[in-house]
Write a structure and sequence with these properties.
heterodimer, A: 643 residues, alpha+beta, Methane Monooxygenase Hydroxylase, Chain G, domain 1, five-stranded parallel beta sheet, five-stranded antiparallel beta sheet, globular, B: 253 residues, 13% strand
Amino acid sequence: MSGEIKKLDSKQPDGPIETAWDRHRFSLKLVNPANRRKRKVLVVGTGLAGGGSAAGLAELGYQVEAFTILDSPRRSHSIAAQGGVNAAKNYPNDNDSIWRLFYDTLKGGDFRGNEKSTYRLAQCANSIIDQAVAQGVPFTREYAGTLANRSFGGVQVSRTFYARGQTGQQLLLGVYQSLMKEVGKGKVKLHTRKELLELIIVNGRARGIITRDLVTGELEKHYGDAVIIATGGFCKTYYLSTNAMASNGAAQTRCWKKGAYMANPCMTQIHPTSLPVMGAYMAKQTLMSEALRNDGRIWVPKKKEDKRDPNTIPDDERDYFLERRYPSFGNLAPRDITSRAIKQAVDGGNGVGPTGVAVYLDFKDAIERDGYDKIKDKYGNLFDMYKHIVNESPYETPMRIYPTAHFTMGGLWVDYNLQSNIKGLFVGGESSYEYHGANRLGANSLMSAMTDGAFVLPVTVAGYLGETFATLEKVDDTHEEFDIGMKVVQGRIERLMNIKGTRTPDQFHRALGKVMFDNVGIERTEKKLIEAIESIKNIKKEFYADLMLAGDEKMNNELEKALRVEDTIDLGLLMARDALERRESCGAHYRMDFVDEDGEAQRDDENFQHVAAWEYQGDDTEPLRHIEELVFNSIQPSKRSYK
Amino acid sequence: MSDEMTLYLQVWRQKDSKSKGGFQNYKVENVSGDMSFLEMLDMLNENLAREGKDPIQYDHDCREGICGACSCMINGEAHGPGKKTTTCEMHMRHFNDGDAIIIEPWRAKAFPVLKDLAVDRSAYDKIIMAGGFIEVKYGNAPEANSMMVGKEVADFAMDNAACIGCGACAAACPNASAMLFTAAKTTQLSLLPQGKVESKKRVQSMIKKMDELGFGNCTNERLCEAACPKGISIISIARMNREYMGTLLKSDY
């Protein structure tokens, strides 16, 4: 491998931004309908991005094989999104537009996203609402029968469509049903409970994958003409997060180790309103929707370590710190800013609850103002969920909340076609870094995953298949690269099974998570990041010396975890490195050594208006940091202020 | 913490789908009331793993009651004693120190055991595959607000769409019937104008598939409704039966 730092070209189309996607689509090659069945696409992950692109490509006539590690595509983690999905339909007539959605997304991401891709996202968003309605998604409606909208953090228009508090579930089920329809027709071959363990590259092009059957333990070879990775984000590097247990970054890390660049891995969203940690065996943290901040007020007692019952603390002894520090956005400040303010309040000794690591989210004033019934109508589900878990009623006692890892803006590097630097390898949804820059706005995640799946990947993957139709060499699973891949995977499994140490995969994962949250979390400094790199290297060393693996090579959750933790450790290390090298503060990446006189994030456009794309150089060699310059022609990056 | 409990578990262990299974006893100590049921099992599993023993296999993912992966009979009840609660959402404060808890996999012929508490629920995917969708291709959708849907209708469709496909309804039913699952989907889709067009074909083929897969029939025991973590009502079963009968009697045009 060469050690040269490259300037990457993400092939953003030239010319006016409004017509860029149309002109680009026209430039892509087509495949004759009769020839489409001769091409096969492997889709890894069956959430909104993966399931949508699998169904979309099958509808076009391509052969598709879809893979999920879960027992059904209907369980993919897109299902857990609560609040909504954005689109600039401007139904409420509140002066929303595609341009405003585009601008809000780019500004929300602190100008670290790609301009033209983001514009395309805002353009396609309207179609995903149409598509979802046509698929039978029961969005919440007004009495007159039209679709309802609500507002979400960080914006001042109502552009969020929702299906009660289960928007992700409903969008996913719509996509799942469209996928199962194609499975039923024999157009998609569905593989459940199968996990990608290796990407197969033949002559520089992605041509297949090696999977492990999670029931029988068998390793399998799968070949195709293009591979789509849509396996979601990697917040599980923090161990505790809002993500589901099976969500992990191992598939991206496998691709990274085969040469795909990893872009901005340090950009992680720590969501401000999750339930606090409640015990050593806590497996995940439950999110309390951002919508609660429309009516809830966040505060801590002014006195340090004040253990009084919150209802007995008078108003003048409370610090409503968001309202104090950000008067114009108040409790609706964007997620990254809110998370930081909460952490600072807790670190200052004003935290509440048994552990002292939480702040109050209080609905007392809202209940007095609007009445119990109205608040129950709006948030009843969430209040019940809170009561279920914490055993306290938010109608009577303020909620206790604390930030936790929620979403990764970073991911595999892609160009405008969502194609990685490896030809034939495409990436969609949270797995790629494309749209959200340094911070993602609420309800933009479902929007980007569904846009990629339904409207971008079926076009660009088909374009690749068209462009290579006459020249792509014939490859099947008898190619020697597949045998090599099988040996690599078998070797990995044997290595882990044979360590026979004393610590379980979860013990290593928890150790990694603690380092990540403390050092590569809400606030970062050069010193903490250097420490993190050393600590993670130690965890890695101990992992290979002291891992204990119960069970056999068949259906075995411990083996699954060990294989994922192995990759997660490397990914955590890369996140810390990326955070160290990005010597600025932007969005969720907040470096305490790069702040202005008010302590707010100090972005450095002169030196860091770029995407960092990391290239793997081997296990013992530091990875290379390539650069994709970000060019803004349509808007001028401004200072992101919510004061 | 002062609320720590010791529990005595009887857990169904089965090596794979072909082997014969049986109960095994485990004692779990230091269980806090704030732990979820699955976190309690996690703790037991970590102890087993440290002793080099095979941990108990069970399905789980989101741990907030929406993905539908978790699936256990707890003391004979699907998803345990809590109403409208999945196993992952149930907290140990609902149990008392010294309790014995029996944990089994879903009981239904159409959901064969894969290992321990994990079962194969692909039968539910097959029912959806038979017709649980609206046949619209990507890119072929009209403007969203061109189709008005009354709020009450949309809300009732949503009540049914809330199904998480966990399988509790069939597991709780003495006939292992999948009627509630199937009816929830036919009801959601046939209520909405965009789904009406295919409703006849849908209800016929989904019911046919359900029967083929070995699910039993409905005899109005209402245990499915009681076990459903999303509170889906058996009104939907009555609605599906009516719709199905209608397809046999009425002409399309």
